[in-house]
Amino acid sequence: MIIAARRLTKEFEIKANSAFGKPLRLRAVDSVDIQVEEGQIVGVVGESGSGKSTLGRTLLGLLNPSAGTVFFDIPDDVLKEYDGFLRDGDAKGAASIEMEYSIFKKKGEKLKKIRSGMNMVFQDPYSSLDPRMNVLSIITEPLLAMNYMKPDKAFDRCMELLEEVGLPSDFAYRYPHELSGGQKQRVALARGMATLPKFLVLDEPTSALDVSVQAQILSLLRKIREKYHIGMVIITHNIAVISYMADQVNVMYAGKIVESGPKEDVILNPVHPYTIALISAVPGKMVKPNRIILKGDTPNLINPPQGCVFHPRCPMAFGICGWTADEIATDLKYLVNDKFAGSFNDKVVVSTGTGGNLVINNTSAGDEMTLERIINDEKGNMKSLTAIEGLERHGTNIELKIKGYQVPKMYNHDGRKVSCLLYAGDDIKA
Amino acid sequence: MEYTLNVSNLKEQFYTRRGIYKALNGVDILLRKGEILGIAGESGCGKTTLGLTIIGLLPRNAVVTDGEILLDGKDLIATLREFASKEANNLNLRHSENMMKKLNKQLINVRGSRISMVFQDPMTSLNPVLRIGYQIAETLMVHQPEVLAKRRLARSKVNDSDLREALKLLENGADEQSIKAFAETRQLEGIEEQLLNIWRRNDLGIARKEKMILSLRSERLGGFDMAVLERVVNQGGIGGWMRIPGLNRMSKAVLIKEGNAKAVELLSSLEIPNPEEVVKMYPHELSGGMRQRIIIAIALANNPELVIMDEPTSALDVTVQAQILDLLKHLKQRFNTSFILISHDLSVLAEVCDRIGIMYAGRIVEVATVDAIFNKPLHPYTTMLISAVPTIKGGEIQGIGGAVPDMRFPPSGCMFHPRCPYVMDKCRENNPQMKDLEDEHLVACYLYEGQKGEQN
Questions:
Q1: Do residues B53 and B8 touch, judged by C-beta distance below 8 A?
Q2: Nearest residue on chain B to A288, judged by CA atoms?
Q3: pLDDT band at B391 (very low <50, low <70, confident <90, very high)
């Protein structure tokens, strides 16, 4: 494996609301496992704020992770051994492998050497090229900074690279403002390839470009991959681009990888509800019989939903996905005080107690029957109601029991890994 | 056939220190009532300039050298043409500024009420220091004060038995016409819209709606408020003593308050949850998709004939984009409004549009229905543009060689000829005319010259 990340987590500290408060923590990447083989293109797709760019930066060691490691150029059997140590909780064994292969344990010259083996191409070619340097110095800068080659050789290398990315050699003396968006992205790509890296992270490489230019850049990337066997991670929000480029696809949502597997499986036959919704949301001409339009927006990562992070928007959620009393109360309020207000008396109030329990106050006799019927009828539309386990009457109050929840792990299903309790099989606790 | 908008031979140039950019080179658009027309093209092809020219929002260095923009038969840019004929060769920016001021005055009753525009970035199009409700109410107050006044007066006049009767009508499935007739016979004009808007809400149960309709009857109006509203209804707007500073502010406040109530109804019709809460919020409290909905609500507030949407979903995520596109499809059925949807993303246009126009270098080179554009593209540029877009299904993609021309020195003849694989000698010299080939499939290309069809 060129790159392998294990349980990679990155948290950012955010200023507290008050001067004395604890700083808030935003978990942008949450125990992500990802690996890239030589010459493989791995796609990471997700909405904005899903942590895909943070993941890319952490993979390169541009950010220090809060937990977990990234290995560079690790033999497959060593990685397997490491996975074994993680599974058995053998911290000592794991640490010894980390010592040798983790990019975060390397320092000085060794780190420099690794750095020349990996590189990044940024989204916006307009701001990632220094306006005061000409193309020649932009491309040769990494070569000289890494002591990769002597200046006289670097010039020849620059010419080679320009030809490789399809630019005429007289572009070497132009400045970024003289280039169009597509040409700038070509220069950025040439810079990324200068030291012949084994691994390249491309963060939204074409989203600032026109479709006609995007097509050129994408086919150029494919050509480069074929010729140099570079392992690539392509980060994008555009599913069509991923589908065109990638061998493996990882779908990210709220910092977690929710589905990961070969492109043919994940894109053409998704199983995670979020992937299904994401792919059906892609606009276009083709007929989409069972299109899912998600409600709401991506969650706030400072205070993410409990259980499965996707459950509040999930069209297939069920009882143990992590419903809280507050979420159920909102839906119950609508049912009791609004939709079926005629079936209850006017004073009925839905309230959540301090212990996370759910109580309906001021009910009259027979209300629990009505309530039970309504809950059963509405379960199909309001997924939160599936988490109600039973009703219990205390005087005029009805207390609702809420099911416990489970956090989904990565389950193997149909040739891919998916993080959804629908596919947990035997792993669901009774 | 009746057209909402008729743009013909629109030509526009920008005078800059580096030369004259020929941004639009003869654009023709015919837009029917209730139709969504998509405009697609690469960046720099003039799609945004076209949108801004239709609504008359131009910088002072822009000169419209030729062409007409007819909105329901009325020319919007006569002033601009006249100015251009006088100053085309020697543009004086101060004169241009004065002319733009004149144009702004002419268009004040058109912008926001008959034509409105939705911009790309929802983060910057709303005013951060005003509440959502106020921003929607403001456009209502400026363009339709009498409608707001009628609504409020009707609520003060209506009594319980009227409301109960209206409720019965609604429960029996009365349509818009009969509710309107009912309001007219009771002299309660303005109440019908409120009744219907509450009744149409999907986010509330029947019991809640009934309660809301019965509580429409409001407390009596104060003397000042009454005077303001009656004067607005009689004079058709704010005027007379209402212009006195102080009083002006107070009378506007009366209308804004009613505007807030209408804003709630508008937002609920755009499927925004908890509209009562949302109108009290500031823009930063809302997500991007929500903000874009608010902007669409402002654009639709006065039931305009034309809404221009410039990349309405480019700043949004795919799942939110799907929500907005879905909303647009509903709106098209609900409001009798024509839309121009400008986007670089052909697949977005394919989703919602009736017809698509492909723009290249300041000209529309092909117009056809969505099916025809995707299944039977004629212009070489359209074909290449479609084959450059990657799809989920996979398949090879093909970039378009070369780049968009520098519009200071546009190529001779057909502007696409330097990049065109089928280029002929004729293309280098002459610019092909738009030709209607069949079923309103218009294309400007010499490849189709021999085929029958009429010159347009």
A1: no
A2: B351
A3: confident
A201 and A191: one domain? no
Whether B456 has a pLDDT exceeding 50, the answer reads no
* Domain end among A172, A195, A218: A195
B325 vs A contacts (CB less than 8 Å): 283
Residue A191 is part of which domain span? Answer: 130-195
**Whether residue A258 has pLDDT greater than 90:** yes
- The nearest alpha carbon in chain B to A239 belongs to B392
CB contact under 8 A, A219 and B399: yes
Compute CA distances B434 → B9, B354, B425, whole Å: 11, 20, 19
pTM: 0.89
- Shared domain for A215 and A190, answered yes or no, is no
The residues pairing with B111 across neighbouring beta strands, listed in sequence order, are B115
If asked whether residues A20 and A76 sit together in one domain, one would say yes
Nearby residues of B213 by Cβ (< 8 Å), 6 or more positions away: B163, B166, B167, B170, B195, B198, B199
How many CA within 13 A on the CB side of residue B184? 6
* C-alpha pair distances (Å), A267 with each of A130, A160, A243, B336: 37, 36, 7, 38
User: Would you say residue B190 has pLDDT above 70?
Assistant: yes
Tell me the mean pLDDT in the region A391-401.
86
| Best residue of B48, B316, B318 to probe chain A, by most A CBs closer than 10 Å | B318
Q: Chain A: residue nearest B209 by CA?
A: A338
Tell me which residue has tokens 């309790």: A421
Q: Find the DSSP H helices in B69-175.
A: 78-87, 93-107, 122-125, 132-143, 145-157, 160-171
A246, part of any domain: yes
Give the ipTM.
Answer: 0.84
Q: How many domains does chain A have?
A: 3
Q: What is the pLDDT of residue B399?
A: 84
Evaluate whether residue A177 is within a structural domain: yes
Pinpoint the alpha helices (H) of A196-343.
211-228, 239-245, 263-268, 273-280, 325-334
My answer on whether A91 and A227 are in the same domain is: yes
Nearest to B399 among A213, A267, A338 (CB): A213
Q: In terms of domains, do A254 and A387 share one? A: no
Residues 6+ apart with CB under 8 A from B198: B209, B212, B213, B216, B265
Residue bearing the bigger pLDDT, A338 or B310: B310
Question: pLDDT tens for residues A5-38?
Answer: 999 999 998 887 777 778 888 999 999 999 999 9
From CA B329, how far away is CA B350, in angstroms rounded?
A: 12
Give the three-state DSSP class for B376: coil
Helix or strand (DSSP H, E) at A285:
none
Task: Please report whether residue A320 resides in a domain.
Answer: no
Do A206 and A173 lie in one domain? The reply is: no
Tell me whether residue A257 is in a domain: yes
Last residue of one domain, picked from the residues A195, A213, A231: A195
Q: Which of B326, B346, B399 sits opposite A216 (nearest CB)?
A: B399
